[in-house]
Design a protein that fits this description.
It is built from eleven helices and five strands; from the N terminus they run αβαααααβαβααβαβα. By secondary structure, it is of the alpha/beta class. Helix 10 links the parallel strand 4 and strand 5. The protein is globular, with a radius of gyration of 19 Å.
């Protein structure tokens, strides 16, 4: 039988019957983001070499250090000034440009997460940093009057607080071991192929979220909620 899209979803539906745990990525799975907005925001500040140090697929090591919590916000900002050759950039300008990556959380996503939490053990696993973390929590308070993401998941994992980041195997192992999760009963949803690849190596079921697909469309298609 040739492998068709309908056959793929039939197989995936069978897999979902055995799923007890779901691990969610955050950016472009729950909270819509756009990397190009950061480049545009820095360009508006007169940074004309942003593509040399920042992009979705390749970037200066300072971004990974920030995501692991290995450098301070102040050191990050100083490094951005050095990379941009713009010592006059203020902290506020850098943070505003850096936070411009965030778009919105689609209506219905939080409600979906609460429904899924009633049926599955759900977890959040996000590569993030202290500056973005603060912005997200401020957004959640302003937009939804909630303090943080904890009410939507059994447990949340943020890279800058764990000292580990995807696609490193150690962060996936931490989530599995701390919560006694069986990889064969676990689904991981992420928008980055390299993150998906590591999860697969550990025996975790995966779903690569690519636009225009959404978590609401995915779970409706699977007749889960």
């Amino acid at each position: 039988m040739p492998f068709t899209i309908s056959l793929y979803f039939h197989i995936f539906a069978l897999i979902m019957e055995g799923i007890k745990n779901i691990i969610f990525d955050y950016g472009n799975v729950i909270f819509n983001i756009d990397f190009t907005r950061v480049q545009a925001a820095w360009a508006k500040l007169g940074v004309n070499n942003v593509e040399e140090f920042y992009g979705h697929r390749q970037q200066d090591p300072v971004f990974n250090l920030l995501e692991r919590g290995e450098i301070s916000n102040a050191n990050f900002r100083d490094r951005i000034r050095d990379l941009a050759h713009k010592p006059e950039l203020t902290d506020e300008q850098i943070d505003s440009a850096w936070n411009s990556i965030f778009l919105d959380i689609p209506e219905g996503n939080h409600e979906l997460l609460l429904k899924l939490k009633d049926k599955y053990r759900t977890f959040l696993l996000s590569n993030i940093n202290a500056i973005h973390y603060d912005y997200v929590h401020d957004y959640l308070k302003r937009k939804f009057d909630v303090v943080n993401n904890r009410q939507f998941f059994e447990k949340t994992y943020y890279s800058h607080l764990t000292g580990k980041r995807k696609p490193e195997q150690e962060i996936f192992e931490q989530v599995l071991q701390e919560n006694n999760l069986d990889p064969a009963e676990t689904l991981f949803i992420d928008d980055s192929p390299q993150h998906i690849a590591t999860a697969k190596q550990l025996g975790i079921h995966t779903y690569l979220m690519t636009a225009p697909d959404t978590i609401q469309a995915f779970f409706k298609k699977e007749n889960i909620v």
